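Fold sample X.
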Amino acid sequence: MFYYVKGTVAHTAPYLAVIDCGGVGYACRTTNNTLAHLKKGETAKLYTHLNVREDAMELYGFATENELNCFQLLIGVSGVGPKAALSILSAATPESLAMSIITGDEKALTVAQGIGKKIAQRIILELKDKLAKGQISPGGESYGGTGVTVIPENKSSEAAAALAVLGYSQNEIGMALKGIDLEALSLEEVIKQALKKMVKG
């Protein structure tokens, strides 16, 4: 229904940003990471997700499409609601979350408030499985296809898998990783540089 809202930041509070668009204030539930980019009185653009329940309609807004993609992936996991997803994305950036999923680092997820070991394990299991069933590396090698999760063995494959979690296609990932010094940079820096190239593109 809404792809994004763009307007003046009228008000911020924990997990909330109100964006004034032409005299209408849109209350967007959001993360600490997005709130850190907002300043009252300045123009902001938030990519949105409308969550509809029987008793309420709530709008969620994010500073980047990557964060929105991660939010939508998380709420697709059984037992993970919007509140838990916001908590996770307040404690982790999209790229660090993607790395946690790919490497099976449940401790990184339990840092988020209200996220226990069982939920963290479920997130890793279900989102790794999504990669295993459909995502492909830039080299054309499937990470799965048999329903069995395969952890990438090198930095290029790990970066590709993490970018795939964020919603990028095989071709986009392949182009973004070209020219990046995989040996000299950490995995997180490789992912960050690739994301920067894709945003500029």
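Fold sample Y, listed below.
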Amino acid sequence: MTPVIALVGRPNVGKSTLFNCLTRTRDALVADWPGLTRDRKYGEGKVGDIPYIVVDTGGVSGYEEGLDLEMAEQSYAAIQEADLVFFMVDARDGVTASDLMLAKHLRTAGKKTQLVVNKVDGLNEDTVLLDFFELGLGEPFPLAASHNRGVTTLITEALEWFPDAEPIDPDALQGSGIRLAIVGRPNVGKSTLVNRMLGEERVVVFDQPGTTMDSIFIPFEREGVDYTLIDTAGVRRRKNITEAVEKFSIIKTLQAIQQANVVVMVLDARDSVVEQDLHMLHFVLQAGRSVVLAVNKWDNMTLDDREQVKKDLDRRMSFMDWADLHFISAKHGTNVGHLFASVQKAYESATKQWSTNHLTELMNGLVQEHQPPLVNGRRIKLRYAHLGGRNPPVIVIHGNQVEKLPSSYHRYLENSFRQILDLRGTPIRFEFRSGENPYAPTTTGKPQKKRGPAPRGSAKAKAGPRERKKR
């Protein structure tokens, strides 16, 4: 059994800092901002040969309403599934009413609990710890997570309660299979879609822009196919971003896009397509990720409004005609299941393998059907093609004067390759490489000619090997 350790406590007591120390990562966002962590975040660590799983949770104060109440539900769920709870308190604040309330809940739940007093740096530990015996959770453990002081001792002593811990599957938490990122502007329904795809209330959903602050990786399986679902923070326009925490949150979203195999771009049907959606798509395409478009909040729209949305999409998204488009309702589940077929198709298209012979024959057929143009009276020649990379597919074409190919011929090759190879949902990239011209001018301004065999009948040709060497 691999022990699961949940980090719980009031907001801003250092849970995410301790999470990063225990997992030796920077996966959790850390800032002097109460309520930054809102969803359960899982990580793995190891002390010697003993592994463990850590769960970071949102702060619980006991007076939650609205969004804070949803966050608290996630924390209580983490307590229920944990084998051990690190109950964190702030040494500088002393015992608060929220600490007393949460300590009572932990005693009632009957969970193994280690009381952790954080932020003891610069304080008299003996004096500080005396106050926290009032919580009735045993002897408190002093810690300075921001300086990584006491962390190793804390986890080593805690794992002594689990002598039968087994090794962790390396793909268990980081996820395996298709990495699927859900991206879009704030409040378009990304977290609602994640919960609908998982079939459970796994992430916090609230009618407030910016509910999700960090990227959450969730491994799951559907119909025998492994996925890692990534819920991301919404990305607003740059001029509207003022808080430093939101900037880091957006960086985590952009990193999640680069780590994903397929991106589900969520659009709001009531807003149609706005400039920020196009900026996000541009970044996704620059990263070379496969794309599935999902137009959310499609329910309760009139027929006239739906037709107008479709016209706007045809007009503004014509450059994405190779991506599958779905009209969904994440709230009610309408057409959500159809997304998975498009995701699998996009992933297969992005990771296909073709032989050099197959790509070269395909290119030659396209050249015979429509030859490249003449440049200065000379025909551009395309000699052979091969696969240069996958996810996205990169096709490398070798020839002469290929740098002078017009953009129209580039589009002709891309559209033809995409249609014949049946590529759906993934961008495709071309690299054109020219052979070196042996008669090109050198740095001296004179052409560098190749040395061929000596002419027949010449003295050099008649001379033997030793004589030629002397000459």
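Sample Y note: The chain has 15 helices and 17 strands.
Also: The domain at 175-350 is CATH 3.40.50.300 (Rossmann fold).
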